[in-house]
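Lab notebook, bench 4. Still working through the backlog of constructs that have no structural model yet. Next entry is a single chain of 336 residues. Request: give me the structure tokens for it.
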Amino acid sequence: MLVTGPASRLFATGFASSAGALLVSKSDAWFFVDSRYVEVARNSISDAHVLLISKDETFPGRINGVLKSDGISSVGFEDSIVSHAQFLEWKAEFEAELTPAQKLINSLRAVKSMEDLEGMKKAQRLAEKTFEELLPLISTDITEKELAAELIYRILKNGADDKSFDPIVVSGTRSSLPHGVPTNEKIGKGFLTIDFGVKLNGWCSDTTRTLCVGKPDDEMIRIYDTVLEAQYAGIKAVRGGVKGRDVDGAARSVIETAGYGEYFGHGFGHSIGLEVHESLRASQISEDILPAGAVISAEPGIYIPGKYGVRIEDILFITESGCDNITNLPKDLLVL
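Model written out:
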């Protein structure tokens, strides 16, 4: 197996870098890296031979030399990560057959160990601390972009390695945009949706809370309560071995019964780990079986175009009999 995706390299070696390739055979492993990272790689990786790619060599050429010397005739690769140009370069150079193997590494990464889970909880706690610090700053005198900038600043100040994605901060009528981009407009009255995540020691968090700036009307309260009820229904349906679409269906049924089915367009959730969106899905069309040990988001929503929208998102660790919610932030509608 040839591992070249940054998250999969980190998963396999514990070493984070923007370059490098890991080759794993039945009996051995090699990490290929250039001079920028070779010293730290040799200090960080203990279970693979760290091989320097010199300025006179190419990655494919050096990798092919190991494939030949080890008698490897077939090598798996991450077919959803590797570009077509990269594939053609490898195909021309390698004397081993290239075999798509993304599903193999996805299945390995899907189930988290207790150590992995602790890392994800630490990321989640840092995110929650940051969100609580952000609340006093929210007013109609600050713009969406300014609030997003404050969020990113505090994420880094609190010790995160990075944000796990660009934060979504949308208010007023723009809260109807599930993945709206913050603007230079000041925070508007009505719903304010904040969707953000941190990255800590490689692990990602993902959290959404919808607040209300000013007093909500009856329909706004009804929509918020419907989304919250739908989230609880989906969470109740989660357990090891259940289909992702069945979890989605449990939440979607609540929203449809309330008359808002056409306004819930995305899925209930996605798996998360070393990437904020990993391979498993809990959606209407998902055939994925959610295994015990997987970590997924729980994020139903209702979005009425030109009016407002609500999304509430927690993170769940799936067990054989149900799930553990690792998100600690309250979910009652907060009115500012």
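Notes after review: The mean pLDDT is 96. Residues 84 and 285 are 28 Å apart (CA to CA). Flag for follow-up if needed.
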